[in-house]
């Protein structure tokens, strides 16, 4: 999704090809707003800091690799506290909402938004919207205080509950207006951030002094621009437990095969990083890298070779990998009952079954164990590095809202916290580049085939079979020989 038709991106240009993709500010659509001194300058915790406030012109480059002739390129506004704020602490009525699926770190983000508002800025009125966007309609709210959120980061899930859908922009903004809310913190994935963008546009259309701030949440790490999303490190770490269990099972049986399915509907980052971290994986299959089952260079061929060499193997597969192969199977088996179809839609179960069928044909005895740790991974509390990351994301979001910025997402760009316009976060999906060094490192680690050669052979075989039904059958067949 590009920028909304209601507003044009804020672009600031400088010398040597410098481009700042700026984020909206109250001053863009509300004239003559009063400003106030930032309460942080009287905060004893900050008295040791040499530079209290971020310089107004500080920005962070999107691309950090350059050479002497490179243009300076696209930048984003650097996150952090500003000298002037656009809210008096006693006037702030903040609201926090979590949407979409669970992810490690949600409770940490909630906790740290509440604590940053209270401890840094003296804001006392913070509401939690219960049950995702739908909570705005149902008027489900709970009061959040530093005391009530003190221990929530030690638990998985979200204390506010979550839901998918339920997005009526007008109703949500009506509810924000009715309750006197003037800061909205929205934690969720790309769909949620698209919803947040619509909420911001409606608030701007009405001329309201309400800051709408997004904090990007996706366990798959598939949100563009940002270095990584919170919860990703924890997910990779937790995936190790499943891979380790699969490895133990595989090693302990004759021709043991451990299959682990990990999250990654469109992007294989968790599978790739878990594989690299583990070093026990023989084959990693992700949505970005198509694979084939049969023929030279196919998965079956590789499985047989690896079992002959080592006597066991571990396969990691992302949930979105091989979907075109799964859908072919579903189409050919659509006359089966509902439970049969459900089995085939799970790529982990599907590939496990395919390997078993192939090995049975080859008269190979195998012991295959399938592990799906998806919901165990999603539900754990965040680890140390994610807890720190969530803390900084939340504090950056609060600094931005207090400074009068709106319509932005708080995120890490090249190791620096930045404010990114909503339209950049929702414009596409971050995916593993299989022409990148990181994927090459994985192939080097696992010694798996790239499957591209096998795929070409399989495509030629399919074409040959298709041609064999036509008048050129003899020619096609002899060419295939």
TrEMBL record:
GO terms for cellular component: cytoplasm. The record marks 191 as: Important for substrate specificity. Keywords: Allosteric enzyme, ATP-binding, Cytoplasm, Glycolysis, Kinase, Magnesium, Metal-binding, Nucleotide-binding, Transferase. Its cofactor is Mg(2+). It catalyses: beta-D-fructose 6-phosphate + ATP = beta-D-fructose 1,6-bisphosphate + ADP + H(+). Homotetramer. This is ATP-dependent 6-phosphofructokinase. It comes from Canavalia gladiata (Sword bean).
